Amino acid sequence: MKLKKVILNTVALIILVALLVLVTAAKPYRRGFWCSDETIKYKKQKETVDVKQLALLCALLPFIVIIITEIVASKKVEKLILSKLKKQNNRRSSSEPESSFWANLGSVTYSWFFTLSLTALITGVIKVQVGRLRPVFYLMCLPDVSCSDPVNQGVYLTNYTCTAANESTENFIRSSFPSGHTSYTISSMLFLIIYYSKRFNVDKNNDWRFLIALIQTGFLSIALYVGLSRVADNIHHWQDVLGGFIIGVVVTLVCACFLDHFNSSNEEKSDQNDSKSKVDYPERLETF
């Protein structure tokens, strides 16, 4: 990648992360509640997927998958490239495959992290603005107003104080929509699904297509499992999970469409080589 491109990408990522930090520190909208609302009176259960496990699934797992995939793909393609160079008596440096490996690894990793960060930013903004109460709100808050008092029946209560929650806990129980666990996970897993399709050129002529499809199904299953667990654990309403799923899918697909440099990189490479000395480098994949 050119220096200018690296600088611009770095600046964009820094701005994105800075905005994400600001949104994370913001307090959610303070919403009232109805005493008759039974959807916010569930008991909190142990999380099936906690924050640490989420980090492993959304951050560590994709990074490891990308590294392993690039190593496997580059090794597989290197023989083909060197064979083409030999047949054409091309004296281009044999270090090209290695340099392309690092370029691809950097490009894919950046694209994945940018997509995930953008998903987190949009999810965070909506959480703060909506301030939907979680299913465990009432028992974790224990508001200082009595729902057994007839005066509070049929009244939208806004003037109350949580007696059982500190500031951090109160922010947590006021940020139900959309589900961050779901949006982060589906964003990372969908990225890997699209990445595999692009990286291995999955079509009917690909001998690996069924194995790749199985791996992609595994990625999708992880995202679905995380989302459904949030409902089962009474941490989110089902609408929160659906909203998180939609956000993660839309953001990732948009990034895949507008940040895909695969075709442009091929065009640039084509312009730099004349028809006699041109060699296709299928391992060069500056993906979205």
TrEMBL record:
Keywords: Membrane, Transmembrane, Transmembrane helix. Residues 109-256 form the Phosphatidic acid phosphatase type 2/haloperoxidase domain. One of its GO terms (biological process) is signal transduction. Residues 266-288 have a biased composition (Basic and acidic residues). Gene3D superfamilies: Phosphatidic acid phosphatase type 2/haloperoxidase (1.20.144.10). It comes from the Eukaryota. Residues 265-288 are annotated as: Disordered. InterPro entries: PAP-like, PAP2/HPO, PAP2/HPO_sf. It is a multi-pass membrane protein. The chain crosses the membrane at residues 54-73, 101-126, 177-196, 208-229, 241-259. SUPFAM superfamilies: Acid phosphatase/Vanadium-dependent haloperoxidase. It is found in: Membrane. GO terms for molecular function: phosphatidate phosphatase activity. The keyword Membrane applies. Its main location: membrane. The keyword Cytoplasm does not apply. One of its GO terms (cellular component) is plasma membrane. PANTHER family: LIPID PHOSPHATE PHOSPHATASE, PHOSPHOLIPID PHOSPHATASE HOMOLOG 1.2 HOMOLOG. Belongs to the PA-phosphatase related phosphoesterase family. This is Phosphatidic acid phosphatase type 2/haloperoxidase domain-containing protein. It comes from Tetranychus urticae (Two-spotted spider mite).
